[in-house]
Structures are given as structure tokens and as C-alpha cells.
Amino acid sequence: MPRDKRDIIRLTRSKRQRLGERKQMSEYIHKAHNVSVLLYHYVCPAKYRRVIFDDKVDKVLIQTCKEISKRYDINIMEIGTDGDHVHFLIQSVPMLAPTEIARIIKSITAREIYRLCPQVKKKLWGGNIWSAGYFVATVSEHGNEKQIQNYVRQQGKEYTKMYRSQIKLFD
Fold first, then answer.
1. CB-based contacts of 117: which residues, under 8 Å, 6+ apart?
2. What pLDDT digit, counting tens, does each position of 77-116 carry?
3. What is the predicted pLDDT for the residue at 161?
4. d(CA 101, CA 88)
5. With contact defined as beta carbons under 8 Å apart, do 41 and 152 qualify?
6. For residue 88, what is the enclosing H or E element?
7. Nearest CA to 36 among 138, 151, 143, 134?
8. Distance from C-alpha of 110 to C-alpha of 106, rounded to nearest angstrom
9. 49-70 pLDDT, tens per residue?
10. 80 pairs with which residues across the strands?
């Protein structure tokens, strides 16, 4: 018999996984004083809407995002590009505000893309890869995780799914 709510959540989740009902990648994040499932859909356009995302830039973006996931409480679940902008499906904790998540991702990825892909500097001027703005929405606001994944896939004619994280069994 479960002793507390956390055990109930774990039992329910593992039961669903055994039955194959839960196919999304998001999981409950257990911290000392909270349990959460916060999913965000971000769209970050390139500065001046320039088409800067090619195979080399995509690889740098993926690798940088993997490193961000290791260092911060940010699980970047899916990344996709459409030439002049990038879609992110992100799971995070309540302690990180959506603006802080955007700042972390945009600043670190910009620094690494400029460092490893100098050809991008020729297409942009002023030292910025990302435009000042971005779009963010909670996934549950307008649909579930699967609907957002499908939406991200259907953006633009040349959408490329670049990355999908794997389920982590152990920390």
C-alpha cells in the first residue's frame, strides 16, 4: 500500500509505462519540496530572420543544448529548425522562470555557434544570433505534448527534426 502521494505517482507512472499508455517523454520531476511537470514550447527566431541554420550549425546547437541540459534543470526534449527559427520543446522546474530559460538557452547557444561556426558572423551583424523576442507557451495551455510535437513538425516546408532526448532511467 502506498505511503504518500509520491509513491502513488510513481506506482501510477510505472503501471502506465508497463501498459504502454504513456508514450511522451516528459516525467514528473521530484525536488525536495515539489513535484512538477512543466512543459514549454519556445520559438526563437534568428536575428533579422536570416536563414543561418544549416547542418553544421544544427550540430553545434544540438551539442550545446545537451550540455545545457546537463548543467541546468532544463530538459530539452525536442529541437527543430525551419531555416530562420528554432522550435524547442522544454521541460523544466518551477524555480526557473520561462524568461530565464530563454535567456540561458539563447545566450549559451549564441556564444557556442559564433565560436564554432564563424560563417554565421558573415550573415549577421551586430553580434547577435537571436532576435530580442521569442514565443513561449505552456504545452497544456493549447494541447498535450503530442499535439505540440506534431505542430512543431508541421512548421515550414523544410522543417528538420534535429534532436529528441532519451528517457533517463537513473540520475
1. 56, 57, 60
2. 889 888 899 999 999 999 999 999 999 999 999 999 999 9
3. 67
4. 11
5. yes
6. strand 85-92
7. 138
8. 6
9. 999 998 899 999 999 999 999 9
10. 87, 161
